[in-house]
Amino acid sequence: MPAGITTKETHMDIAEAFRFFDRHIRKEGLGTGGATLLRRGRVLLARGRTDYVVHWDFQDGDATSIVADLVQSARTRSVDLIWRLYEGDGPPALGGVLERSGFLPLAGGELVARTTEGIAKRPASAIIIRKVDNDERLGDFLYVSKCAFGEPFELVEDQRQGLINLTGTQTFVAYLEGVPVGAAQLDTICSNPAALLRGGAVLPDYRGQGIYQALVNKRLLLSRERGVDLVFAEARPASRPILFKMGFVRVASGITWTFSASE
């Protein structure tokens, strides 16, 4: 158990949990889906079809110049830029600087977390969870994600293989009577005491049957096996009640600031 984080059922030091998230998830670049990580001054960027600010460390006096540099880079490359701010993020003036620089705010999800203590294996059921380790299962993962989120996944071959072999990311598909019905990912790296749950999706016709819970439980157990102390997730409104029931607690609310290079 990391210093400063206490637990009795779901109790923990929320402020320390957020610092833990910043130190072991964002600073290490976890949860970036295999995007290229680039250090640009005091900012860590994930570069892809959209640039995403992963971690930063600067004061109010530097905010305007740093944001301007990132905006100019995004314009030059004709890519959008995303910057997610949580409660407790600094510097204090950053939100205002982003707004004045042309970023638009969107309501983000809630960051939630739970320790790996007291995780029980779910009773045997008809839900079978498989790791994505071949092209057929990758196709099942993409199919479920597309149907659940309503967004197509258009991947070239190197991206398909990358999704199977991502360093630090494990991808899973849940099957019910041989039908792919759920999908999810787990981000962990060796010796890192934190893990991140991503991409939990269940086909609409199969919701309410415990599939999402089974995917969460599978990833929690794997996290514990890897020596992880604290597991984080970005909770959408539909998943929050389930995660809270499974022992997660709210750490912080977030705002996603988006800069469009085309405007």
User: Low-confidence parts, pLDDT < 50 over ≥5 residues?
Assistant: 3-10, 155-159
Tally of DSSP β-strands? 11
Could you say which overall geometry the principal axes of the C-alpha atoms support? Answer: globular
Query: Biggest sheet, in brief?
Result: 11 strands, mixed
Please name the CATH architecture of the largest domain.
Answer: 3-Layer(aba) Sandwich
Give the total of domains: 2
Q: Could you estimate the helical fraction of the residues in percent?
A: 25-40%
Q: Roughly what fraction of the amino acids lie in strands?
A: 25-35%
Helix and strand pattern: HEEEHEHEEHHEEEHEHE
Q: What number is the mean pLDDT?
A: 89
**CATH fold naming of the largest domain:** Aminopeptidase
Number of helices: 7
Strand order of the largest sheet: 1-2-3-4-11-5-10-9-8-7-6
**Rounded to an integer, what's the Rg over CA atoms?**
19 Å
Give a brief rundown of this model.
The chain is α+β, with helices and mostly antiparallel strands and 263 residues long. It folds into two domains: 103 residues, Aminopeptidase; 112 residues, 3-Layer(aba) Sandwich (Aminopeptidase). The N terminus is likely disordered.
Question: What key phrases describe this protein's structure?
Answer:
alpha+beta; 263 residues; single chain; globular; 2 domains; 7 helices
Description:
This protein has 263 residues and is α+β, with helices and mostly antiparallel strands. It has two domains: 14-110 and 254-259, Aminopeptidase (3-Layer(aba) Sandwich), CATH 3.40.630; 117-228, Aminopeptidase (3-Layer(aba) Sandwich), CATH 3.40.630.30. Helices cover 31% and strands 32% of the residues. The protein contains seven helices and eleven strands. The protein has helices at residues 14-26, 60-77, 94-100, 135-149, 157-164, 211-225, 240-245, and strands at 36-40, 43-47, 50-56, 80-86, 104-115, 127-131, 169-176, 179-187, 194-202, 230-235, 249-259. It has an eleven-stranded mixed sheet with strand order 1-2-3-4-11-5-10-9-8-7-6, with helices on both faces. The longest helix has 18 residues, at 60-77. It starts with 13 loop residues before the first helix and ends with a strand. Residues 3-10 and 155-159 have low confidence and may be disordered.
